[in-house]
């Protein structure tokens, strides 16, 4: 029977011998490659934390000692060790295992959100709660070198440094990479500590000899450990952590179980906040991942478990591909344009632009707040920055967009990839809040292009705005086929038109295609509809309000949250000028959506042609029968 089959909870690890532990690590790696290659997921990060996670669960007592994974994408081994191995066949699938920690799945899971750099704050808060309640529990926060470039992490470290009695262990999982190599002075410092390991290796030999010596071995080891700090001061540069007043242990080989357990035990026994700096290898044990220069298989689709080759060739271009292509062209046409990424150069589509214009791309690390205010500075200095982030991560930089960009009337363009429902990454990854927060920003203009041509046109328009934030957003989907306008009127495109239309369908972005589908279904029921693409959804075009006034029913369809979305703003503008045409708003409901495919989530939200057409027809017929039209809000 494989060792892995015997592991149902962390305590099952404690009875294993050294050789069994090594065998188990091998089995877990094979399990990850076999299973994640079939489902897709964060293969590289999890291959890098096999021994680390095993050591944590051997030294600490989860869930009494909370183990928190920053960003959460590297928690597969934790899930395996806490009895969920069988569920991996349903990883990231509807009703299946989440790709991130999930409190609904296990008492061992504490923090679910996939937004980086939060784990130290979570840990500090938990540890303070335990201390205040007299509980001798130790909190373990596992944070990657990439997540450590996020400002929140340093806010937490600043607070940890002055709490000597706080039982918290910060495990830095340092593999030197986010997707690409981690950037900035912190990364350089960690690299310095990584490379300056001579004292650790010297001591390692001494420790093993003393530890194994009969009689006074253990006491001698503890004495040596005390010396180590002294030695380290001499042999290795004092880490900034220690300068901050934080105890620092390491760097430790993150694949050496014994060294890890010794360091974690020492940290646990300190009784105060300790940094344990572990050196790991992203993608370890799977050659295709280890050799992947771009991102070490950070996140893979379905791949061949031997070669790592994708099982399905990406035949159709994505929105990201279209953005990537056009940015290179814009780079030539707009010489003052520069681009900013928050540690996601390739995922957001800036890889090609950075090859052509290496001096005009800035990777700021996982630091969206800094990215946006730095963009305000770049704009004030005469350039036009394009901030390219996933929609959900813009949430983090709302204040900077509002106060530093908009209030200072700086021309910054935000390109939001993964806008709308994303799906498999779960609730915190859906790009559903961007329209709502952007709608609060005075002067901001937002476009959701319906196809490649409209994206290109929107980007060019945005680059011409030098006194306000502009936003162009698109989904994770493949690029849709072009949808030509029948007529361009008052800044908007009519993509379906009927002189006698009673219903006005307002589509945004990819959902213009969905609105056309609804129009065709209504037509079969004898209901005539016009479909309009506002092109710029925010601020609401007064001509759209006038158009609404000329119809008997208006239907707004958007791939963002209904609450605070474009439909809500259209409703406000219609009421403001006393246009009382009934309005139905279709979009994402105001709740956290479970992981599933994008199509499944959209169906759950009723965002399909048949679903919308059925609702609209029902409302229309009620109206015709003289009943008050119910205002549909998802
Ligand atoms: C606020 C935020 N910005 C961006 C991301 C996208 N993202 C997910 S994982 C990752 C890299 C994380 O690097 P690191 O913390 O070193 O973990 P590793 O993958 O190396 O284990 C990034 C940028 C995110 N999850 N949260
Ligand atoms: C954990 C994280 O935030 C990213 O790795 C994210 O999972 C990537 O999403 P895409 O796969 O849509 O690029
Ligand atoms: Mg990393």
Structure write-up:
With 634 residues, the chain is α/β, with parallel strands linked by helices. Helices cover 41% and strands 15% of the residues. The protein contains 25 helices and 18 strands. The strands form 3 sheets. The chain has a 7-stranded mixed beta sheet, sandwiched between helices. A 6-stranded mixed beta sheet has the order 12-13-15-14-17-18, with helices on both faces. Strands 1-2-3-5-4 form a 5-stranded parallel beta sheet, with helices on both faces. Helix 20 links the parallel strand 10 (445-447) and strand 11 (470-473). Helix 4 (50-59) packs across helix 12 (257-270). The model is unreliable at 231-237 (pLDDT under 50). The structure holds thiamine diphosphate, 1-deoxy-D-xylulose-5-phosphate and magnesium ion. Thiamine diphosphate (TPP) is lined by residues 45, 71, 73-74, 114-116, 144-147, 173, 175, 177-179, 282, 298, 342-344, 366, 368, 393, 396.
